[in-house]
Specification:
By secondary structure, the protein is of the alpha/beta class. Helix content is 41%, strand content 14%. The chain is built from nine helices and eight strands. The strands form two sheets. A six-stranded parallel β-sheet has the order 5-4-1-6-7-8. The chain has a two-stranded antiparallel sheet with strand order 2-3. Helix 5 links the parallel strand 4 and strand 5. The chain is globular, with a radius of gyration of 17 Å. The two termini are 13 Å apart.
Length: 227
């Protein structure tokens, strides 16, 4: 049994700034602050942590009620922003062909490990007709700490299949140092891909198990998961 846990933004797709625009609009709607996400790190972060960081940077108080209000408003705006055309909006190179190949292998279970809210992940992936490849996952509304999302994903895989893969048969695929770091405490295998904001040399210093420029080399990817 093999579990492949994919990040979304910068790994599977580029939303063309839809997430940032939707979050900025939602923050303005809830707190009446128009530039609340200015200078806030988004890449590799959970949506919950982005919200917390934006609140702290803007010196506004927040609680469960305002978080829920922000999340609901953001998801509404994300549904409006995702269909918009943008020159950077795309499926990352090689992704569709790789998912088609992996989905034909019976003992490979494709999942998500992403900082996106679960509904947000679905909105983003459905725009590119990719969501149906993933039958379980862990999301930014499960926990603010990305490293803790691993257990949520594996538990949901167990609920789905009745089995738990050995850690050396779990691959975490992502485009940021945080994706690489997420694999370490669990003994999982990290596959870094330089299709986000981090270049290959920046990802190399984080010591991933494997590094790809993009996911077009399906033969090499298959060799790795079949070792």
């Amino acid at each position: 049994m093999k579990a492949l846990l994919f990040d979304i933004d910068g790994t599977l797709i580029n939303s063309g700034g839809a997430g940032f625009r939707a979050m900025t609009r939602a923050f303005a709607s809830v707190f009446n602050i128009t530039d609340g996400l200015k200078n806030i790190m988004l890449s590799g972060m959970t949506d919950m942590l982005i919200f917390q960081d934006a609140c702290k940077a803007s010196s506004v108080d927040y609680d469960d009620r305002t978080f829920e209000q922000f999340m609901d408003t953001y998801l509404t705006f994300l549904g409006e922003e995702m269909p918009k055309e943008n020159p950077e909006k795309m499926i990352c190179p090689g992704v569709r062909a790789l998912l088609i190949k992996l989905s034909t292998i019976p003992d490979v279970h494709l999942g998500l490990l992403t900082g996106n809210f679960a509904v947000g992940a679905k909105i983003k992936l459905e725009e590119f007709d990719l969501h149906h490849y993933f039958s379980y996952g862990a999301y930014g509304d499960d926990n603010w700490d990305r490293n803790l999302l691993y257990d949520y994903a594996i538990d949901r895989l167990y609920q789905k299949t009745g089995s738990i893969p050995r850690s050396e048969n779990v691959w975490i695929i992502g485009d940021t140092p945080r994706d690489i770091a997420c694999a370490r405490p669990h003994g999982a295998i990290s596959i870094a891909v330089a299709t986000g904001i981090y270049k290959e040399e920046q990802l190399t210093v984080e010591n991933p198990h494997y590094l790809f420029a993009d996911l077009t080399d399906i033969e090499r990817f298959m060799q790795i998961i079949n070792k």
